Amino acid sequence: MIDRLKNCCMLQIMKTSKKKTTIALPVVLGAVIGQGQLLLIKRNFLPFVGLWGMPGGKVHFGEHLDQAVIREVWEECNIKTKWLKLCGVVTENLYLNRNNSLHYLLHIGQLRPINFDLKPSNEGKVQWFPLKDLSKLRKEMIPSDFIMLNRLVLGNPRKFYYRCDVKRSNDQYIVNFFR
């Protein structure tokens, strides 16, 4: 699995030993909200295969955050959006096993959809969910995405920046902390 993850995502993998050589991968996540609904994608690719999460991906060199998240939502969901605001920044360490982890610098943006028509995507199943039903999806979602949506997008965040550690254990992802 780790070799597939390295190849398909082109991510910097670091060894969790004394010699850590990595940089955080800059990623944008789009909280696309319109008409009381939230757009989510059920991931087809590693690391969160089969879980619902916010659409998003890597920031390209020279790209601004607002441009990156609009592009990623378009590429993954075929939805045109309008940038509203940057909701927060999260550094996330994802521990896959004893020897390998990923380090993301997540930028969470809120967007408004220009259209609501969904089209098939290679990235995963795309679907609108009523905001009022978000808590029902908790066990089917990327756990850190669930927390980010509730704290940074839908809630009244006490701060702009958070740290998060997620551990993969027995094909489940567990948030060790989010603070």
Q: What's this model, at a glance?
A:
The chain has 179 residues and is α+β, with helices and mostly antiparallel strands. The chain has a single domain, classed as Alpha-Beta Complex (Nucleoside Triphosphate Pyrophosphohydrolase).
What does this structure look like?
Helices cover 18% and strands 42% of the residues. It is of the alpha+beta class and 179 residues long. It has a single domain (2-15, 23-178), classed as Nucleoside Triphosphate Pyrophosphohydrolase (Alpha-Beta Complex). Strand 3 (37-43) and strand 4 (52-53) form a beta hairpin. Mean pLDDT is 89; it is low at 4-18.
Low-confidence stretches: 4-18
Which fold name fills CATH's third level, the topology? Nucleoside Triphosphate Pyrophosphohydrolase
Q: How far do the termini sit from each other?
A: 29 Å
Q: Radius of gyration, rounded? A: 16 Å
What does the main sheet amount to?
10 strands, mixed
Assembly state of the chains shown: single chain
Total count of helical runs of at least 4 residues: 3
Q: On the 0-100 scale, what is the average pLDDT?
A: 89
Strand percentage, roughly?
A: 35-45%
Give the CATH class.
Answer: Alpha Beta
Class per helix and strand makeup: alpha+beta
DSSP helix fraction: 10-25%
Order of helices and strands: HEEEEEHEEEHEE
General form: globular
- CATH H-level superfamily title: Nucleoside Triphosphate Pyrophosphohydrolase
Count of domain modules: 1
Which CATH architecture is right?
Alpha-Beta Complex
Number of strands: 10
